[in-house]
Amino acid sequence: MGARLVRGGRPGHAGPVLTPSPWWFGPPALHPPAEGTPFDLVLLDRDGTLNVRVPDDYVTRPEDLELLPGAAQAVGRLTRAGCRTVLVTNQRGIARGLMDRDALVAVHARLESLLRVEGGRLDAVVVCPHGHGECGCRKPLDGLFREALRRASWADPARCVMVGDMPSDLEPAGRLGMRTERVAVDRPVGDAVTRLLGPSGH
Fold first, then answer.
1. Which end of the chain offers a freer environment for a tag, N or C, measured as fewer CB atoms within 10 Å?
2. Catalytic residue among 45, 100, 142, 165
3. In the chain, what are the domains?
4. What would the pLDDT profile of 87-122 be if each residue is shown by its tens digit?
5. 191 catalytic, yes or no?
């Protein structure tokens, strides 16, 4: 395992040498949702969409992850609606040696535990651990989205939606024919889910 860092320390190792492929955490293939589910896949950005973005830094420890208001309830609504939800996130801190794969897994374990409080579930997580120009998956490139579609071969991009707070989250999804929903401080993820599912919920 690579060296672990505390914030402010010198860069260490991310673990094994990175390949250009994204990291997939989930079943080898996603099963389709039940008939009548409003979307095939709902893709969710992480930092700034579900949890508080750390300015000029990275969430490297579970205790540093803080959900945005209403995020757990929003994911819970998606889960109850039967949607397959996939987290798609750039995590360049790994390439920089600020955290390793085990640390990332621990951060996401906390995220999932906080979502479960409101009945939310992530069906899979797909991560770009690379720096700029090292891969084809770092948003705004579309490799993370293509990996999700590869693992859900039944999914129609026209029945998929991406929810994120940055243009780089939404542009690759739009190029693939997906619906996009942008969130912001005054347009939180709960509002985006209401636009997707309607005000009555599921």
1. N
2. 45
3. 23-197 (3.40.50.1000)
4. 999 999 999 999 999 999 999 999 999 999 999 999
5. no
